[in-house]
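Much of our argument rests on the idea that a fold can be written as discrete symbols. Part of our work consisted of pairing the sequence of a single chain with a tokenised description of its backbone. We regard such an encoding as a compact summary of how the chain folds. The amino acid sequence and the backbone structure tokens for this protein are reproduced below.
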Amino acid sequence: MKRAVVLLSGGIDSTTTLAIAIAEGYEPYALSFDYGQRHQIETEAARRVSTSLGVKEHRIAKIDLRVFGGSALTDDVTVPKHRSEPEIAHGIPVTYVPARNTIFLAYAIAWAEVIPASDIFLGINAIDYSGYPDCRPEFIEAFENLVNVGTKAGVEGRRFQIHTPLIKLSKADIIRKAVDLGVDLSLTHSCYDPTPEGLACGECDSCLLRLKGFREGGIKDPIRYAMK
């Protein structure tokens, strides 16, 4: 089996991406991050998902992006709530974490060099998303070119490929894909601002996009929300 590093946050997109990598015959090495985000529920979800899908190895890299802040996820900044779809689709929100995907992908490439693996899977989406600049195809293309000229593996001829199987899918399509692959979506977590008990708020951009996806997909969301 070909090995692949799969970035895993514990959300729907990364979980579905992991399932796709497995379905395509890759031996998955899941990589998650404790990066100073507002809560640890995200990494707990990633552990649940990795166990459920039977990854070869799951590592959680501990870094601290709070040293820079600049995001509602890593700083003392209020998470936006109750935004309309046009508001979510317009501009870059305060939940954007500066250079997060660049940093995460750099770690994934480093692990891939060591394993060794040539394939990286990332569950970004450029349709139903919050306007993050590092979720666009042009970012992935540029980063892939960069690592193939800036790594030992790349200059020795073992080229890296960054797979983004969800990048052109709607959230509803992603959820349907997950169900088709037998993913247990009750294990996933999406909320930016969960309650102390771990319930999703149902009001932040991520919750609203998740709920919209389940509604349009005609599937019931299996997780619990504080608002219900």
In short: The CA atoms of residues 101 and 134 lie 6 Å apart.
